[in-house]
Design goal:
Layout lengths: L1 H12 L4 H4 L6 H20 L2 E4 L5 E7 L4 E6 L4 E5 L14 E3 L4 E3 L5 E3 L1 H4 L1 E4 H16 L3 H4 L1 H9 L41 H12 L2 H14 L3 H25 L2 E2 L5 E2 L2 H11 L3 H39 L5 H18 L2 H30 L4 H14 L6 H17 L5 H6 L7 H8 L1 H21 L10 E2 L2 E4 L2 E3 L1 H10 L5 H32 L3 H20 L3 H13 L1 H26 L4
Length: about 600
C-alpha cells in the first residue's frame, strides 16, 4: 500500500518544496501545474513520441505580420502554414523585413536570427496512434469485419431481443438442459453463475457513451477539419468503423473477467482482464504489472481529463454566455456542478447508468437534432460537401501535410474521440446484466459508431457547409486556434459560428450541450477512476468515500482554475493506458473468438 501511495504522490503532487521557496506565493492551480510538469514531460515524450512521415515540403514564400507576430509560410502544394512567433526571443518578430532561403526552408528575421521551417512543416504522428490503428485493423480482419456484419445484431441485443437467453440455458450442441458443475460453472457455454451485473445493455452503452461523447465531438472535430480540410472526415469515419472492432474485443473481455461481490457490486475492466486473462496464458507477472500500471493511469486520467478539464470548459462556456465575471462565479458554478455530480456518483454505477440513459438521448436530441436540421436546411449543399470530402481525402491539396496530413487528422480525431483501445469503456460495460460476455462486446460496438461515425460526421458536415462561404482557409490553425478574418478562435467557437449561421441563437443551445457533455463525462469517469482506485487501495468503504470526496473537490478546482499542465498530464495518462491494454487484447483475442462462436450457437435458433 505504501509504495503505491508514494508513486501517486510523486506523480500528482511531487514538486519539491524548494521550487516555491524563493518565489511569491502561488495559487493552488499554479502549484499543481508546477508539480505535474516533470511527470507530464516524461509520459508525453513516451506516449506521444513522434514518427515523421510524408514527403518533403518546399517553402515558396513567407511573410511576417509585426503586430500579431504570425509568420505565413506558402508551400509548393498551395497550402499555407501559419507559425506564431510571439514567444520567440529578439526583435526580429516585430519587423516585416525577412528573407527566405528556399533551398533550405530557412527564414532569417531582421535581427539576424533564423528559423528552420523543416521541423514545423513535417507531418509527425504520435506512436500511440499507430498502435491504435494497427490494433483496430488486426481485430477487424481477425474477426471477419464483425463491426459491419454484426451491427444489426448489436442493435437487436440493445432492444432486448435476446434477454431471455439468460433465463434458461441449453447446450448449444446437444440441446439438452445444462446443469451446474460442483464449481458452480456451466460447461460448454460462456455463462457464469451469479454474474448478473448491475445495469441493462442500454444503460451500460449510454454510460460508456457519456464518457466519450463530449467536447471532442464539438471542438476537436472543428479543429481537425480546420487543419486537415474536408477530406479528414472520410478518414475519421473509417477510423470510427475499425475502432468498433477494438471496442468489441475489450468489452467482451471486460465482462468475461469481471468480479462480482456478494451484494452484486461489479468490478471489471482492463485491470481485471489483464491480470486474470494473462495469468491464464502463463503471463501472471506481466499481467499484474500491466493491471497496476493501468489502474494508476486511469485514476490520474479521471481527475484530470475526466474531471477538471470538463468542469473548466463547462464553466468557461457558462461564463461566456452569461457575461458573469470569472473568479467567484467560477467557483460557485463548480460547487453547483460538484453537488449534482455527488448526488449521482454516491449511488454508484446503477444511478450513473440511470442518469446516463436520460442525458445521452437528450444530448442527441439537442446537438444531433440541430445538426440534422441544418443539413436539411442546406440539402442542396450536401452533394458538393461530400464531393469536397471525397476529393480532399485523396489529394490533400492546400493542406500542409498533403494527403498524409489529411489522413492523420481524420484518424487522430476518431481515435481521440471514441477512446477505442483505451479500455475505459470496458469498465462501464462490465457492469451489464448478462451472463454472455460477447453480447456486451457486440453492444459496445455501437459506441464508436454513434460517437464518431454519426456525431463527429454531422459536426464535420455542418462546418464544411458553413465554410462554403469561404469564412476561413483550411490549414490556417495556430496553436489549436482557427484564423478567421485575422481573429483566432477555438474549436467550440468555430462550431458555434457554424451552427449559429443557420440557427440564430444556437450558442445558447450549445452551452447547454457543453454542460451536459461535461456533466455526463464526469459521471462516467468518476466510475472509471473509482475502479482503478479500488484496485490500488482495496474495496473498503473508506477507499470508496475517499475517492469520491477527492473527485468532487477536483470538480471545484477545475471550475475555478487554469490547469493546462494537469490536463496535458491527464491526456498523457489516458493514452498511456493504450499500451498495456492493446498488448493484452492481442494476446487474449483467441479467448474472444471462442466466446464469439459459442454465443452465435446459442442465439442461432432465435433468428
Amino acid at each position: 500500500m505504501k509504495p503505491i501511495l508514494l508513486i501517486i504522490a510523486l506523480l500528482l503532487f511531487g514538486a519539491s518544496h524548494s521550487s516555491y521557496a524563493q518565489e511569491a506565493p502561488k495559487g493552488l492551480d499554479a502549484r499543481i501545474n508546477d508539480a505535474v510538469k516533470p511527470a507530464t514531460k516524461i509520459i508525453s515524450d513516451i506516449v506521444f513520441y513522434p514518427v515523421t512521415i510524408g514527403g518533403h515540403k518546399t517553402v515558396t514564400g513567407a511573410s511576417l505580420d509585426p503586430e500579431t507576430h504570425l509568420l505565413s509560410v506558402e508551400l509548393d502544394n498551395g497550402a499555407t502554414q501559419i507559425i506564431d512567433l510571439s514567444k520567440e526571443k529578439g526583435e526580429g518578430k516585430n519587423s516585416p523585413d525577412i528573407s527566405l532561403d528556399k533551398s533550405s526552408n530557412v527564414v532569417k528575421l531582421s535581427d539576424g536570427s533564423s528559423i528552420n521551417l523543416n521541423d514545423s512543416l513535417d507531418t509527425r504522428v504520435p506512436i500511440v496512434l499507430f498502435v491504435l490503428i494497427l490494433g483496430a485493423l488486426f481485430f477487424t480482419i481477425s474477426f471477419g469485419f464483425v463491426n459491419i456484419r454484426k451491427l444489426g445484431l448489436s442493435i437487436d441485443i440493445v432492444r432486448g431481443k435476446y434477454d431471455d437467453i439468460d433465463e434458461h440455458v441449453n447446450d448449444p450442441i446437444t440441446g439438452d438442459e445444462v446443469w451446474h458443475t460442483e464449481e458452480g460453472d456451466i460447461p460448454v457455454t460462456e455463462r457464469v453463475e451469479g454474474h448478473h451485473g448491475e445495469v441493462s445493455h442500454f444503460q451500460a452503452l449510454t454510460a460508456a457513451l457519456s464518457a466519450t461523447v463530449g467536447l471532442g465531438n464539438i471542438a476537436g472535430v472543428a479543429i481537425a477539419i480546420a487543419i486537415g480540410g474536408p477530406g479528414a472526415t472520410l478518414w475519421m469515419i473509417l477510423a470510427g468503423f475499425i475502432g468498433m472492432s477494438t471496442k468489441f474485443v475489450e468489452c467482451t473481455l471486460g465482462v468475461k473477467y469481471r468480479e462480482i461481490e456478494a451484494d452484486g457490486t461489479v468490478h471489471g475492466g482492463p485491470m481485471y482482464y489483464l491480470r486474470k486473462g494473462l495469468a491464464a496464458k502463463g503471463l501472471g507477472g506481466l499481467g499484474k504489472v500491466f493491471a497496476i500500471f493501468y489502474a494508476l493511469m486511469v485514476v490520474g486520467g479521471s481527475f484530470g481529463g475526466g474531471n477538471m478539464f470538463q468542469a473548466n470548459q463547462a464553466t468557461a462556456q457558462f461564463i461566456s454566455l452569461t457575461g458573469i465575471k470569472a473568479g467567484f462565479a467560477g467557483a460557485a458554478f463548480g460547487l453547483f456542478m460538484a453537488i449534482l455530480v455527488g448526488i449521482v456518483i454516491i449511488g454508484g454505477i446503477k444511478r450513473i447508468g440511470s442518469v446516463a440513459e436520460k442525458i445521452v438521448p437528450l444530448m442527441a436530441i439537442l446537438y444531433v437534432g440541430a445538426g440534422l436540421i441544418i443539413l436539411a436546411m442546406n440539402y442542396d449543399l450536401i452533394p458538393s460537401s461530400f464531393g469536397q470530402i471525397w476529393d480532399g481525402a485523396f489529394t490533400g491539396k492546400g493542406i500542409v501535410g498533403g494527403l498524409t496530413g489529411v489522413l492523420i487528422q481524420g484518424f487522430k480525431r476518431a481515435a481521440f474521440s471514441n477512446e477505442a483501445g483505451v479500455g475505459s469503456a470496458a469498465i462501464a460495460h462490465a457492469a451489464v446484466k448478462t451472463k454472455y460476455p460477447v453480447s456486451e462486446g457486440l453492444v459496445a460496438m455501437i459506441g464508436p459508431f454513434v460517437d464518431t461515425v454519426i456525431i463527429c460526421t454531422i459536426t464535420a458536415l455542418v462546418i464544411v457547409i458553413y465554410n462554403s462561404g469561404g469564412h476561413f482557409d483550411y490549414g490556417n490553425v495556430v496553436d489549436g486556434d482557427v484564423l478567421i478574418q485575422g481573429s483566432r478562435i477555438g474549436g467550440v467557437d468555430l462550431t458555434s459560428k457554424a451552427f449559429d449561421s443557420a440557427i440564430p441563437g444556437f450558442s445558447y443551445i450549445l452551452t447547454i450541450a457543453v454542460i451536459l457533455f461535461a456533466f455526463s463525462t464526469m459521471l462516467s469517469w468518476s466510475y472509471y477512476g473509482l475502479q482503478g482506485w479500488k484496485v490500488l487501495f482495496g474495496r473498503s468503504k473508506m477507499a470508496d468515500t475517499t475517492y469520491k470526496v477527492l473527485f468532487l473537490l477536483f470538480v471545484i478546482i477545475g471550475s475555478s482554475a487554469s490547469l493546462g499542465a494537469v490536463t496535458d498530464f491527464s491526456d498523457a495518462m489516458i493514452f498511456a493506458m493504450i499500451f498495456p491494454n492493446m498488448i493484452g487484447l492481442v494476446i487474449l483475442a483467441p479467448v474472444v473468438r471462442k466466446e464469439f462462436h459459442r454465443f452465435l450457437e446459442v442465439i442461432k435458433d432465435k433468428g
